Amino acid sequence: MAGQQFHDGQVDARIVRREEVARDHVELILESPALARAVPGQFAHILTPGMLRRPVSFSRIEPDSGRVGLLFQVVGEGTAWLANCQEGERLDILGPLGHGFAPPDPSRPWCLVGGGVGIPPLYSAAAQWRESAPDVIIGARTREWVLMQKDFEQLGLGVRVTTDDGSWGQAGTVIGPLQEWLEGHADGQVFSCGPTPMLAAVASACRGRAAAQVALEQRMGCGIGACLACVVPARGQTQMEYRRVCTEGPVFLAEELIW
Amino acid sequence: MAGQQFHDGQVDARIVRREEVARDHVELILESPALARAVPGQFAHILTPGMLRRPVSFSRIEPDSGRVGLLFQVVGEGTAWLANCQEGERLDILGPLGHGFAPPDPSRPWCLVGGGVGIPPLYSAAAQWRESAPDVIIGARTREWVLMQKDFEQLGLGVRVTTDDGSWGQAGTVIGPLQEWLEGHADGQVFSCGPTPMLAAVASACRGRAAAQVALEQRMGCGIGACLACVVPARGQTQMEYRRVCTEGPVFLAEELIW
Amino acid sequence: MVMDLHVSLPRGLTLANPVIAASGTFGFGPEYSRYVDIGSLGAVSVKGVSPEPWLGNPPPRVWETPMGLLNSIGLQNPGMEVFVRDDLPFLREKGATVIVNIIGHTVDEYARVASRMQGEAGVAALEVNISCPNIKEGGMSFGHDPEQAYQVTRAVRQATDLPVMVKLSPNVTSPALIAQAVEQAGADMISAINTVVGLAIDVEHRRPALGGTTGGLSGPAIKPIALRVVYDVAQSVSIPIIGMGGIASAADVLEFLLAGASAVMVGTVTFQHPGRMQQIIAELPQVLSRGGFRGVSGAVGQALPAASRPQTRGGDL
Amino acid sequence: MVMDLHVSLPRGLTLANPVIAASGTFGFGPEYSRYVDIGSLGAVSVKGVSPEPWLGNPPPRVWETPMGLLNSIGLQNPGMEVFVRDDLPFLREKGATVIVNIIGHTVDEYARVASRMQGEAGVAALEVNISCPNIKEGGMSFGHDPEQAYQVTRAVRQATDLPVMVKLSPNVTSPALIAQAVEQAGADMISAINTVVGLAIDVEHRRPALGGTTGGLSGPAIKPIALRVVYDVAQSVSIPIIGMGGIASAADVLEFLLAGASAVMVGTVTFQHPGRMQQIIAELPQVLSRGGFRGVSGAVGQALPAASRPQTRGGDL
Ligand SMILES: Cc1cc2nc3c(=O)[nH]c(=O)nc-3n(C[C@H](O)[C@H](O)[C@H](O)COP(=O)(O)OP(=O)(O)OC[C@H]3O[C@@H](n4cnc5c(N)ncnc54)[C@H](O)[C@@H]3O)c2cc1C
Ligand SMILES: Cc1cc2nc3c(=O)[nH]c(=O)nc-3n(C[C@H](O)[C@H](O)[C@H](O)COP(=O)(O)OP(=O)(O)OC[C@H]3O[C@@H](n4cnc5c(N)ncnc54)[C@H](O)[C@@H]3O)c2cc1C
Ligand SMILES: Cc1cc2nc3c(=O)[nH]c(=O)nc-3n(C[C@H](O)[C@H](O)[C@H](O)COP(=O)(O)O)c2cc1C
Ligand SMILES: Cc1cc2nc3c(=O)[nH]c(=O)nc-3n(C[C@H](O)[C@H](O)[C@H](O)COP(=O)(O)O)c2cc1C
Ligand code: FES
Ligand code: FES
């Protein structure tokens, strides 16, 4: 339909930079003061030619310059379309949406644990709360998909890297280094994002030892709480209940979920 | 699907020129020796993003240069997409398809009667059989949609023009001038293309007075005779039968059809 | 352009325009109110409400298909008391015309929700969902059998004076038969269609893609199916029809009106374009006038066979 | 890549690969042979054939919808004698595996076509179309009622030794019930689905767009509906299923195999891409191997609930 109207919470954001950061991984930098008010862990719900919008977390949030980043892997038609967007083009976005990370308590040790495309939103958290200087553990399948390592290092943070195939950093998953970190840090705070099996392992490692906030993915419809598509099972007061990733999440306390 | 394969009868034709010939009317010149073997009245079945290809007649057929023309009005999504194609781009075309005009008998008077986007295929006939020097009657709703008048004149042909609103040539339809022509020419041959109500009037005017070949339009599926979508009612040996515009047509003898 | 968009329906139900938010795609009201003035819509049909809370189906609950969307939400809802307490006041305050979509496992449960809504300020009508394909017991079968559809409708009818519409399933051999049954049972209106049962395969995991195995197909893909049901039902009953299924533009709305719908609901497209319903309302006058109509009601049923055109169907013109 | 694409079906019917041209979209053979080597397809199901010629419906006969196509051809065909005389020799000569799609107004007419084909060289199997939505009498009701579906199938079964598949309609409350009826009547296979009844409105002329009023919806829009029917029927009968509806790629074929189809038919997409079936056959080995399969038969039914997977359905592995 011609002449799309925009409303509060719906943003017409211009792409000011496009970068292929790794094979099949693109980061778009958008100019949008409205989006740049986001809390780390929140997401953008992006119109693509498909029937549903595509949720992507913010990799960077820069309120001063009014810019945000979206760093995504090309996995299907929607992300392929997005990856083809050029500088100067505009995206129709709902956002910032969802419930982001609660700020870390600066008086307690803090660690970020990210896997694959779960790394970028953790970078936005690290940048936002850089004074709390988290330890950073990031992992990926293989070397070239270890995302944003340099960006973390430029914040002056120590980064431990794992790859499944041992092609970079330590061979194995992020869970090994996390276990070590938990042993060395009492009363710690863990922020984590990555594939659901990884988050389940993080939740299990942290249980009773550290407070873990995890950012989840789920297939979404509306993205704003209306359709009840995006639920995950959580511990209700008396029994299991479903919570919405788009509204109560994407960031949950690990212990409120049923893994 | 990647890597479309092309077969005999399926052409990957490059657009070498694109011209907006009138408001909402575009002519594309394609380079394709295979298409340039067409008979006037045949058509191209063009892949567009829709579920079905779009049939368009050839406005020009130039076997020597290996080029053909497609002149169409933008009426919906398919033609809008086509009108947006640029020089250098390629079209996936089945063709030339269908049954074109039978050559005129040079010993008898010959007249072309075209309306709107029915004019271009008549130009290809005029150019092909220019020695037979047809009289030309063309009509349109309004001045700017009188197509290809100059092209006919450059062939040295006399052109009578009608417009519904009288903004160019004579006010009214092509049927008036056709009646006059029929009165002045015994044993004539009429080639006609245009909206179906116009063709019905042409058929009726010619009945018993001149041999009329008419080029019809009908909604098509396959375009090659397989699906039986594109039929029009015709006089069978004993009763009404349906004939396929894509295969037995688009050019029919006016008297074989039921109007 | 002065164009009469309002729609008069039975029992005094009047809509400012024919564009209603479809149940289940618009939550309970607050969610989209940031993007749309919900009071400016023809009406809002809220997510299905049952007497007690329903948990719904396991995720994933949505899956894209060509021009369509499969969902298996499974009618998750917090129950009618929470709805009345938490959501209805907001809707009332925003001036929304509220249609409460009601569901139950038994005839009695439907009747319980209906009588609970009776007399609640702000409830304009009830929509009886006997057709959700995501519930294997109850809901499914009610809409698949004329006798059961009759029973549910009758029970709701007896429980309330509110205008009652019954929402039909396209997943039956003859929706028209169900329509006749619910008309006889006292339904004031029919809404159609609910989603079409479908399935997708998650090739990677070699299993059905949705947590609920099958799901309901919505979106533009089903528009021709919806139009067929509306067109058939319009020739089988004399009560008004609220048409839906794949509507994405004002031109689509006109198709449904011509096929016999008195108003329409818009669902899936809202996920792409939260403001699309308002845009449709804004563009409808132009689309109607291009079609030669002076208002919504004049277009209703004009593509039906002459014998079934609205003169004989009453009420709309 | 060495990949076993062949498909073994009942009564010795063997296909070189699982990709069959769907009836009505591929004419009687010659039309597409310029674009495709019809002998290299798994098989070709020809346009429905009746004892006497059928005229078909008035035009327009096709209309585009979002990712779908409505048609109301109305089974125009020249009758079985012309088919045997004019088309069958060509198909035989090209080495096509020919499935004759048969239609009739009465049980007896179906049986007449079946016995006419019995013994004709080059006919590999029959597909009994009891489900075309474009015929109001006969064809329609046979596929909508288990008893009538049984009668037609039984009559055809008795008239021929050829492998018989019966083509199901999606336009019924329970395709699985019809499937069980035709299995009991002696069908060797089931093909599913035929088109979904739909309607479009020609807004400009204020009337249904198709000459036949309603039409049959095909193309990608109906893929989820087709997969659901295949998945349900696969759990209800133990004879093989030929799946179809919206297939446009090798990945789509794998979805149908996983949902329980032993082979597939491809229709509407051929209008866009005459060579697409050959392309699918060429790409299938890679798609199967990416999915972890060593052949077609290993994939069949692997997304069904464990109890219904092919070990228990026999024949395919
Ligand atoms: C809150 C949230 C934040 C996310 N942030 C990022 C990010 O920062 N970077 C990134 O690369 N990816 C992120 N994802 C995943 C991203 O949304 C999917 O990769 C993307 O939607 C795939 O779309 P597609 O059309 O390319 O793939 P397809 O597989 O063709 O998509 C089909 C459908 O499935 C949905 N879908 C597919 N994969 C996922 C998934 N993993 N999660 C949710 N829906 C999915 C799509 O949205 C679409 O509706 C996030 C997901 C969520 C829910
Ligand atoms: C043999 C033949 C030759 C033609 N030659 C020309 C020509 O030289 N110049 C020209 O401008 N037009 C010509 N037409 C008409 C042209 O095919 C349609 O205008 C075009 O298909 C419209 O497509 P659309 O997507 O823009 O319109 P839409 O209305 O969106 O199309 C919807 C569907 O209807 C079909 N359709 C719509 N109008 C027609 C029509 N008049 N005839 C057949 N199918 C139609 C489309 O192909 C498509 O499948 C010809 C048609 C035929 C059958
Ligand atoms: C996610 C989702 C949830 C739905 N939930 C309900 C519901 O609770 N009650 C109901 O009657 N219909 C429900 N529906 C059906 C819609 O109201 C509507 O009938 C259908 O989606 C067709 O319209 P559309 O194509 O415009 O979406 C739901 C549809 C979707 C997509
Ligand atoms: C134009 C057209 C004509 C058809 N004619 C027949 C027919 O004669 N017999 C039949 O059994 N099915 C017929 N069908 C149905 C197809 O064989 C197939 O079941 C349906 O189109 C779904 O597959 P698709 O989406 O790949 O096209 C026809 C379909 C189309 C589009
Ligand atoms: S995506 Fe609709 S509620 Fe979360
Ligand atoms: S378009 Fe298929 S037969 Fe003419």
Describe it.
The complex is a heterotetramer, with 2 copies of chain A (259 residues) and 2 copies of chain C (317 residues). By secondary structure, chain A is α/β, with parallel strands linked by helices. Chain A folds into 2 domains: 10-97, Elongation Factor Tu (Ef-tu), domain 3 (Beta Barrel); 110-256, Rossmann fold (3-Layer(aba) Sandwich), CATH 3.40.50. In chain A, 17% of the residues lie in helices and 36% in strands. In chain A, the strands form 3 sheets. Chain A has a 7-stranded mixed beta sheet, with helices on both faces. In chain A, strand 7 (110-115), helix 2 and strand 8 form a beta-alpha-beta unit. Chain A is globular and about 50 Å long. With 317 residues, chain C is of the alpha/beta class. Chain C has one domain (7-56, 75-197, 219-308): Aldolase class I (TIM Barrel), CATH 3.20.20.70. Chain C has 10 helices and 16 strands. Mean pLDDT of chain C is 93; it is low at 312-317. Chains in contact: A-C, B-D, C-D. Chain C binds chain D through residues 65-68, 70, 144, 171-173, 196-204, 206-208, 214-215, 217, 219-225, 227-228, 231, 246, 251, 254-255, 258-259, 291, 302-303, and chain D through 65-68, 70, 144, 171-173, 196-204, 206-208, 214-215, 217, 219-225, 227-228, 231, 246, 251, 254-255, 258-259, 291, 302-303. The structure holds flavin-adenine dinucleotide (FAD) (2 copies), flavin mononucleotide (FMN) (2 copies) and FE2/S2 (inorganic) cluster (FES) (2 copies). The site of one flavin mononucleotide has 26 residues of chain D, from strand 6.
Write a brief caption for the model.
The complex is a heterotetramer, with 2 copies of chain A (259 residues) and 2 copies of chain C (317 residues). With 259 residues, chain A is α/β, with parallel strands linked by helices.
Fill in the keyword field for this structure.
A: 259 residues; alpha/beta; Rossmann fold; 2 domains; seven-stranded mixed sheet; 5 helices; 15 strands; C: 317 residues; TIM Barrel; eight-stranded parallel β-barrel; 16 strands; 18% strand; binds flavin mononucleotide; binds FE2/S2 (inorganic) cluster
